[in-house]
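Hi Y.,

Following your request, here is the sequence exactly as I used it, all 78 residues.
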Amino acid sequence: MKKTIKFKIGLVLMVISIVAFLMLPVIPFLNVEKGVKYIVSTALFIFAEVTFWVGGILMGKELFDKYKSLLNPKNWKK
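Below is the corresponding structure, written out as tokens. Let me know if you'd prefer a different format.
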């Protein structure tokens, strides 16, 4: 299957969002004020969500087809 440039960009965006989500538990241990922690964690969460959904939209039909086949109960025993 030939992967288009949209698919590759979507995949990169989804990986970036995973990295951003993994950075969230580190924020409480930063040596900064509480207000800065709140702002940074909120901004990072919003950034991660937006990049995840934009990546999913760009991956589009290929992503949907893959997970549709995985969620089909007929394919679970294979």
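Residues 34-71 form the longest helix (38 residues).

Thanks again,
Q.
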